Amino acid sequence: MLYVVATPIGNxxxxxxxxxxxxxxxxxxxxxxxxMTMKLTQRFGIETPxxxxxxxxxxxxxxxxxxxxxEEGIDVAVVTDAGTPAISDPGTILVRQVAEAGIExxxxxxxxxxxxAMSVSGIDVTEFTFLGFLPREKKDLQAALRSAAQRxxxxxxxxxxxxxxxxMRVLADTxxxxxxxxxxxxxxxHELTLRGPVAEVLARMEANDKTEKGEYCIxxxxxxxxxxxxxxxxxxxxxxxxxxxxxxxxxxxxxxRRLVEEGEKKNAVYAAALRLKGxxxxxxxxE
Length: 287
Description:
Layout: E1 2-5, H1 17-25, E2 28-31, H2 34-43, E3 50-52, H3 58-72, E4 76-79, H4 92-100, E5 105-108, H5 113-119, E6 129-132, H6 138-151, E7 154-159, H7 164-174, E8 179-184, E9 192-197, H8 198-206, E10 216-221, H9 238-247, H10 252-261, H11 266-286
């Protein structure tokens, strides 16, 4: 059996008795960082052997762990540095391979930064999308934020202390209507949550000289962001649309440019223009 065990995100008091019992009972603990997990096991008197299983070696490690589970009949637990495995953390590959091998996978639920941040946000998260870590590049980040705002009511984002201000600046610039709840150091001594319009929260963060410390979980309320009207999809093929523009007086170059501006792929429009030219030439020859 594989146990997916949630561990504290900051406060060791959140370690459940069941999690301790499971980690003591299994034959092996697959840990994101054995050094971090060793602090936890020493604190709770857990003597189970550890093996690393992180995002850079998980594929190979998963195969070896599954082999041992099948050949030796052992139970294994998977943990990450903090929180619940496989949620924006390693664990997914191992869980999938274990399940595909016909071995039972059991959750040992507990701390989750995402759930904790949502619970204190004051934002309606009846419908939400977990976005995890978004792209770093500004254009890619803006595109991801605009896309999320059009398809969900709330988004949950993880961000590092070193990039959180840049993230908030891009968010404020891209979606100024957004309302946010920004949580840092959840369950720790200096836990902090800031709530309000994105520009106001950003200003408070910029004024805080300790902002670049601690991990962040950000809940974004997109409901005040204007929704774009869906574009009506044309039922006409590209050749027919090009021909319609030609009949209105445009030349082939201008007609092609119009379709590209409307969102059609340049290569597809170019190919359609060549086909249309061929069809028009055939008609001229027949005449």
